TrEMBL record:
It comes from the Eukaryota. Residues 167-362 form the Major facilitator superfamily (MFS) profile domain. InterPro entries: MFS, MFS_dom, MFS_trans_sf, Proton-linked_MCT. One of its GO terms (molecular function) is transmembrane transporter activity. This is MFS general substrate transporter. The chain crosses the membrane at residues 12-34, 41-62, 68-87, 99-120, 126-147, 168-189, 195-216, 228-249, 255-276, 283-303, 332-352.
Amino acid sequence: MRTVPASTLSFVGSLGLSLTVALGLACVWLAGVIGARWSSLIGIALFGASTLVGSFTVSNIGGLFMSAALYGLGGSLMFTMSNILPLQWFNDRLGTANGLVKLGGGIGATVMALVVQQLIDKVGIAWAFRVMALTSLASGIPTALLIRERAPPSSSSIDMSLFRNLTFFLLFVAGFIGIFALYIPSFFLPTIATSIGLSSTTSAGVMACYNACMALGRLASGIACDKLGSTNMLLLTMALNAVTMLAIWSVASTLAVLIVFAALNGIANGAFFVTMPTAIGRLLGPHAAPAGIGMAITGWSVGDLLGNPIPGFLIATTHADRATSIVPYRAAIFYAGGTAAISTALVLVARLRMDANLIKKS
């Protein structure tokens, strides 16, 4: 695949991520029809199929696009269920519940960042994909069978009247813009690490640090949502995301600085996926929250699809992928930091609409 441009490869990953959120509303509706358990089982089956297909198409760009599409379909079902099920069981501790749910994904990502590289080195990319598929099916199917709903959600998955709530609208737009920057570090950290002279093993270690801190950010932010306020934590999360990109990543020319960035930005990245649904859930209440969260998640699809190809194009244009320093990557980094800063400003306006006292729990 060396002849395939970085922007094209990043688009493959972006397709899967985009479908994961683009189908959020459809998944909320499906859960209302067949239930969360069956929705989750279908999701894990499609997810496993995606990696199996990928194992046979590692040298075929068309096959990888098919694998990404299956990943998006399965991932959307699983991700949506993880966001709407806690609403049925928790209120005062909704943030902690969301944090614990998302922590599982963070732990898995941390382990896989290390294991996959070892598998690739020992058995090759194709068999690494197959091991991932079998592992996900073996662990996911029994877990899905244990899912129990307190009250079946309504099959109604969209309520356009929610946009009349200006605070919800601001949070929706903040997520729509902010997601453009969110996956850029996880996609391009390994490339940048290699460019500044780090080995593939060290690069995998940097990604493991990033993923571990994502897991920490998910749990810690969930607990903090219940203690300090979910919208307050969302604002802090978005601010940390923007600052770390603009002030740290742009000068990360050594392993030490890159690890500092990976740790802090990983925390912010993980926290976003807990603080945003928790803030919307508490803003709208349990009845309207599933539709509101589904609408917000679906709004992320454009950013998931285009967020990584844009910096991929910037990297290709500046020939940063052949560079030996961080400098040529700054165009892509500033693009990411700029979108994160705009999103932060929107969350700030939403928070001020709720209460002008930023110290107050909200």
